[in-house]
Write a structure and sequence with these properties.
The complex is a heterodimer of chains A (378) and B (162).
Chain A (H helix, E strand, L loop, with lengths): L4 H12 L2 H10 L14 H4 L3 E2 L15 E5 L24 E5 L1 E4 L3 E4 H9 L4 H36 L10 H5 L9 E3 L18 H12 L7 E5 H4 L7 H4 L1 H10 L5 E2 L2 E6 L9 E5 L6 E5 L4 E7 L2 E14 L5 E5 L45
Parallel strand pairs in A: 1-11, 6-14, 7-9
Antiparallel strand pairs in A: 2-3, 4-13, 5-13, 7-10, 8-9, 10-14, 11-13, 12-13
Chain B lengths: L5 E3 L8 E5 L2 H4 L15 E4 L8 E3 L7 E2 L8 H5 L1 E5 L5 E4 L12 E10 L2 E8 L9 E7 L8 E9 L3
Antiparallel strand pairs in B: 1-7, 2-6, 3-4, 3-5, 7-11, 8-9, 8-10, 10-11
The chains are: A alpha+beta (378), B mainly beta (162).
Chain lengths: 378, 162
Amino acid sequence: MNIPATVFNPRLFAALGDNNAKTKLAQQGQAWIRDKIQEESFTTKIIPKEPIAPADIQVSTEHDHPLVIIPLEPETRAVTMSFRGAPDVKMISAPRIAAAFVVVSSEMYEKPQQELIVYQKTNTPVTKLIEDSTVYTIQAIEDREMTMHSESCVQAMQSEANGGGAVPALFGSSIVGGTGPVEYSVRKSELARVDIADTTYSWPFQLSDKVSLVRMIDARRLRTETMLITEPDFDTWVQMPAQDLGDGLKSETAASGYTKNELGGLKYVRTNKTDIVRPGNVYGFTAAEFLGKYYRLEDTQFYIDRIAQMVKWQSWESVSLTLVNVQSICKLELYSADATVNDTQTVRTSLIPLEEAQITPTNNRVASGVWYPRVVSY
Amino acid sequence: MATEYFVLLESLDLCCRRPKTLNATTQASVPPNSANPLIMGEWFDIDATVASEQWKRATGALPAFPYYLPMGEPTPQITHKIPLLLGNGYEFDTKVFTAAGITIGAPVKVSAAVMVGGLAKSGLILHTGAADADFVQGHCVRLAANNNGFLRVHRMGPYRIA
């Protein structure tokens, strides 16, 4: 639309005097196109990130890496006995583990300051955009670590429940054929477990799947508190029938989507990071006090400097994430294929987090010359 | 403090360094209580059998780069990645070498059979010249006898002579 500046500018200045119009103006005035919705870390919604002071770290005699000692609750027992009996005597001890820190860093960005003028000309605060984006990128890496460690926990328990040794394969046709493993910490959903095609197709999440998920943890003197689910899988909740949701909620869901904070009393965290939590993977977690610890050694640091004509900038933070109690996590798979290391259908790469270098993929295809209408200029 | 096997004689900030993912076999050697733990100063090359970039203890046949983290430092156990010095032009002292035949100025290469504490490590040995198809990793500038037991090497490589 071609609006003459003589018309547009007075309207613009008039709108700047109106507080209600300013927000909308700011959005309309944005020169750049966003590529994706940047999402806060889902890990911190499951295990809050706690600051840790230098006074709380431990040092090693062998290296200069700070450690955190995480104590665990000691085990106690009781027995019945007669009036003349005596219990076993036990020298108490409580287990402890060491947790270490890793640096999660953005790339080091650099640009000659003369070339940054180009971005000023196009009203694109590129350094600020990158600074803001790297905060989310760093959190995405941390979420990836959480997902990888969660997967390790559930598969370790699957191995233990199936006699130890190699993790048993878990896929639909084996369940239907009666040869599936014990589903102790990983379970196929109701629709996936009858799908003999053994594909990566993510079946809709049903209310009965929520029950299957939480029962795994709830059988261990623990309580499932939070479910982690991807946005595409959450989108299927609108399909839940009225006999599961109730007529009132079904009507509301049909109109506005599922808007409650809980499902059957279970909190849930939705994530759009489908390159990390792949669609079809649903995790259940206990409260953080039964699960693990998540520490930050320092707030997110941001460095920017100009050396001669080169401007450089970088963000980083040091964190320690440890999932201590491997029984505090369970997993529901909405697909029938095997996601274990056995990779029976050779589709596992579609079911596990992408490599670090591949996550937060770009949506636009501008680099490939795909946008419409395409105008080539030089 | 653990034995110091490798001393970088340049500002770390001036050295090109990157975290590189280890292959599954080498990951088993990361914990300090493993059968043959990784030590600082060992050399690593790329595992050509893996499609995604993964690294392993070097044997000499491929370009190799030194590992720069003290044994027991826990980060590799978490990330399965180790920092490698990818650049050139710096000097370093190392105890991960076999002295036989090395003289001042002699080229050195990597071998997976350098004995340190009774265990075979990927360290430096003499490169024998034009007939040797392995990569040169640097040149000796100071012998261990005159350098507190460390071999001083000027990192200049990797390159092949033939």
